[in-house]
């Protein structure tokens, strides 16, 4: 099992290296001068050159790549003596410890440095750290809703063996997978927060915290989570329903299930103790893949419902050509997805030991 985990960690590191390379190349061939974006109307030649030097853009592209890789990596090499060196360990930028002393510097273990926003001059890591918990809560609530409701519906459809119920589940799955996230968000906001607002009491817009200017101040408002979570969970819910149904039908036709029935075991025991565990493998695998879609769909859903998460941050950065924020968000989401995929692979290997041989 340990060898399997180490192998998956190695693959994850290779994936992240590929993502860092693609992100760097993509955003360095796009038009636009970061220095002029930061200075605006006050831009002059001397100021532009000073900022480009501070950003390291006065160096060859290959050197900029290695500098960027050194900044985003938790393990990096820095110069601690020469403050004019681009490799200088600036305590305002980096936060960490020196592991291996070397001549003039050393090998450091530090927090990844994602540069600074061109617009606000705030650290990108701080911007994402402020917004990411809201996106994580939204994605977590959505996937939890999709798993619980989807597995319950899928088990019911598989056990009932009712053709009408199966057809309704199939229609629901097709509709759920076909509706784009942004359209579903607008539709749900209009129906449940506008047409039926008097009955549901839900808001069209709102984030995890609401500010009350008349005494309460900032307070937790969980009802604002309902519509975004349901909207974001529609597509994975449809997938979980169909996968659970088809997998349960296949497992229930196996010989060991017929043997359990012949022994007189209770129906609930057969379903939940013997059949469900073996039917979960494709569902768990699908959840890891669909989490990526949740993160992508969250951009549109957050923007429609004004949920102050990473999605809103990305849209604002795209509108303002704030490349460090976009690059940092892409890398941040990539790391989260790699970690989740490794975690799911470990769970999958625990449920099915044959996977460890792959």
Q: What value does the Rg take, in angstroms?
A: 25 Å
CATH superfamily of the largest domain: MetI-like
How much of the sequence is in beta strands? 5-15%
Rounded mean pLDDT is 80
CATH topology grouping of the largest domain: MetI-like fold
Provide the number of structural domains: 2
What spatial order of strands do you see in the largest sheet? 1-3-2
Span of the ends, CA to CA: 12 Å
The top-level CATH class of the largest domain is Mainly Alpha
SS-based class: mainly alpha
User: Oligomeric form of this entry?
Assistant: single chain
CATH architecture call of the largest domain: Orthogonal Bundle
Number of helices: 13
Descriptive terms for the model:
358 residues, mainly alpha, three-stranded antiparallel beta sheet, 5 strands, 67% helix
Topology:
Layout: H1 2-28, H2 34-39, H3 45-55, H4 61-72, E1 75-79, E2 96-102, E3 105-110, H5 124-160, H6 163-178, H7 181-195, H8 197-200, E4 209-212, E5 217-220, H9 226-252, H10 255-262, H11 267-305, H12 310-319, H13 323-351
Antiparallel strand pairs: 1-3, 2-3, 4-5
């Amino acid at each position: 099992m340990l060898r399997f985990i180490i192998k998956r960690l190695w693959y994850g590191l290779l994936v992240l290296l590929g993502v860092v390379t693609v992100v760097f190349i993509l955003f360095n061939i796009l038009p636009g001068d970061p220095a002029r974006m930061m200075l605006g109307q006050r831009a002059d030649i001397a100021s532009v050159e000073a900022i480009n030097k501070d950003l390291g853009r006065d160096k060859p592209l290959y050197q900029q790549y290695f500098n960027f890789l050194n900044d985003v990596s938790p393990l990096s090499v820095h110069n601690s003596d020469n403050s004019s060196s681009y490799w200088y360990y600036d305590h305002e930028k980096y936060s960490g410890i020196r592991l291996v002393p070397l001549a003039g510097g050393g090998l450091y273990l530090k927090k990844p440095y994602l540069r600074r926003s061109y617009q606000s001059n705030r650290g990108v890591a701080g911007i994402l750290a402020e917004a990411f918990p809201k996106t994580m809560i939204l994605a977590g609530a959505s996937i939890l809703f999709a798993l619980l409701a989807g597995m319950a519906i899928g088990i019911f459809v598989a056990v009932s063996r009712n053709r009408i119920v199966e057809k309704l589940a199939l229609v629901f799955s097709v509709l759920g997978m076909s509706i784009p996230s942004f359209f579903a968000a607008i539709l749900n906001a209009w129906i449940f927060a506008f047409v039926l607002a008097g009955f549901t009491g839900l808001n069209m817009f709102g984030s995890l915290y609401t500010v009350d200017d008349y005494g309460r101040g900032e307070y937790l408002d969980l009802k604002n989570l309902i519509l975004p979570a349901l909207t974001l969970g529609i597509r994975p819910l449809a997938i979980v329903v169909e996968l659970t149904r088809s997998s349960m039908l296949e497992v229930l036709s196996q010989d060991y299930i017929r043997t359990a029935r012949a022994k007189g075991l209770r129906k609930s025991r057969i379903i939940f103790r013997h059949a469900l565990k073996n039917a979960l493998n494709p569902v768990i695998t699908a959840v890891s893949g669909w989490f990526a879609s949740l993160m992508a769909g969250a951009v549109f859903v957050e923007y429609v419902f004004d949920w102050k998460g990473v999605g809103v941050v990305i849209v604002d950065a795209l509108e303002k050509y704030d490349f460090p924020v976009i690059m940092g968000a892409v890398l941040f989401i990539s790391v989260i997805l790699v970690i989740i995929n490794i975690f799911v692979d470990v769970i999958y290997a625990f449920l099915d030991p044959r996977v460890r041989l792959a």
